[in-house]
Structures are given as structure tokens and as C-alpha cells.
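Long-time lurker, finally posting.

We've been working with DUF4440 domain-containing protein (Gemmatirosa kalamazoonensis) and I want a structural starting point before designing mutants. I don't trust myself to interpret raw outputs, so I'm hoping someone here can both generate the C-alpha cells and explain anything notable. Sequence follows.
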Amino acid sequence: MSAIDSPEEVPAAFQSAWNAHDMSAFARLFQADATFVNRFAHYVLGVDAIVALRRPLHETIYRDSALENELIEATAISADAAIVHFWSRLRTGVAHPAGAHDIDTLILTVITRRDGQWRIQALENVTLANPRTGEAMLRENCPAAAAGPAS
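Top reply, 14 upvotes:
Generated this for you. Predicted structure of DUF4440 domain-containing protein:
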């Protein structure tokens, strides 16, 4: 799956392209002028820059990684735009310098429809961390994160 037919499909499409380590499929998820902020606050503009940021990682330390994404909420802001939040668990493999381990992040995307195609306009990825220590943590160890969006 790389095409996005509705905002709710963003997490699955992102997961599919990542897990295939297919940078062409990954590129098709984004508008040409999209922005991307990775979990280390590296900001890039444009789909070519997004792929240039990701490709070397998928050829090296993330080559045996896998994502498991879970939709939190998709909120329409117009007929052609939506905000989508989703959890993402990155499972690194032995190719990662720190070895196999899990990392949970929260991803915020703004998705827009142009010429009938839904694509990511902006994406920001934030690592779940203990606010007192900065240590990365998993969702199940953080009651506030596990609760999801406020009602």
C-alpha cells in the first residue's frame, strides 16, 4: 500500500513504505513541497530532500527495521485537508549501532488532497521520552501517552 485514499490510511501507508524500505513508495506519500521533521528535529523541505534524508538510513542502520503504526485520530480541517496523529513503534534490528531495540514516537501529519490525490504536506515525528530525564520510553510505560487524545 502506498496510495492514500483517505486521511485515516496515512499510518498504514507510511508503515508499508517504511517496512518495504522502498524510497520510491515513500516519496509517493508526500506532496512535492512537503516538509519533514524527524525525531531529532532535522527539518527538510521538499520530497527530494525527504528521500535524501531517509535513503541512507534505510540502506544502513534501518535496513532491517520495521514500523508498527496505530492511528490515534484523523481530523478534517476542510474537504481537502486533515490532521492525522498516529503512534509509531520502530523496531530496529541488528544493523542499528545500539542493536535491536524499540522506540515509540508520536507522528503528526497534515495531509492535503491535490488533483484528487491525498498526500502528506507536513510530518513531524517526536520521540516519547521521560520529561524528567529525557530517557526514551515506550508507551505502555507512560500512562498519559497510553491514554491517547483527551476527550
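Before you design anything, note these points.
The first strand starts at residue 30 and ends at 37.
Residues 7-145 form a domain with the Nuclear Transport Factor 2; Chain: A, fold (CATH 3.10.450.50).
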